[in-house]
Design brief:
Blueprint (H helix, E strand, L loop, with lengths): L6 E7 L3 E8 L4 E8 L7 H15 L5 H13 L5 H18 L4 H23 L4 H16 L1 H4 L6 H7 L7 H12 L3 H28 L6
Antiparallel strand pairs: 1-2, 2-3
Length: 220
């Protein structure tokens, strides 16, 4: 997008802030902006629309003013339905349970555990709760529900049900972005993202252990 408008841009992405420096080649002017990052659920619908806009700008299909208006509309109005996302995430996590060898009972339990945990995640993020507390609380709730397979001997693969009930909380995107940044020699950004992802993984583990302890489920 910067090249399309004959600009140079440098972006540094941190877990808490984004630094953007834009240089106008003709006027030799440089502008730097620092913005705070608000933790929300990942919206692939939003990412797709922003990617489409970037290619429209790069191909010369939108003027700067048109792009600005379109950007405002996209960021203010994410059209995805949260209930649809909740349902699809629950089904997807149940599919992961099956992928790892879980039976039908385990899939149903994982679906319910994910449904409850992800709904709690949506509520807490809407209220601007700390993302670390969100992960810890959601993993605890999902673990408690996932452990019912073991507690009541409902199926033949209770361990798989318990293990996959929290898979939806694994910060895979931050880990992947960290690795990508490292390959492109953005070491500070890579380390920041890796540290953030590692802390979230620790919160997930704490919630998992707490739920297992409450339900008197042995780890080994």
């Amino acid at each position: 997008m910067a090249e399309a408008y004959d600009m140079e841009v440098e972006i540094t992405i941190m877990p808490r802030h984004v630094h953007i420096s834009v240089c106008d080649r003709e006027r030799a002017e440089n502008v730097t902006s620092i913005a705070s990052v608000r933790h929300t659920a990942v919206s692939f619908n939003l990412n797709t629309m922003l990617s489409t806009l970037s290619w429209e700008v790069a191909d010369g299909k939108r003027t700067f003013e048109e792009a600005r208006i379109r950007l405002d509309a996209i960021t203010r109005n994410d059209s995805q339905n949260k209930w649809t996302v909740l349902f699809l995430v629950s089904i997807a996590n149940a599919a992961f349970c099956r992928l790892f060898g879980g039976d039908g009972i385990a899939m149903i339990i994982v679906c319910m555990a994910t449904l409850a945990g992800y709904y709690l995640k949506q509520i807490m993020l809407e209220r601007d709760a700390d993302i670390r507390m969100v992960v810890l609380a959601c993993s605890f709730v999902s673990t408690v529900i996932g452990a019912t397979d073991i507690l009541f001997s409902l199926g033949n693969t209770p361990d798989i049900a318990l293990a996959t009930s929290v898979l939806y909380l694994i910060p895979g995107i931050p880990f992947l972005n960290s690795f990508s940044d490292m390959l492109y020699r953005h070491y500070i950004c890579a380390f920041s993202r890796f540290a953030d992802a590692a802390i979230l993984t620790g919160c997930l583990s704490a919630g998992l252990c707490g739920g297992m302890t409450l339900m008197n489920v042995r780890m080994f």
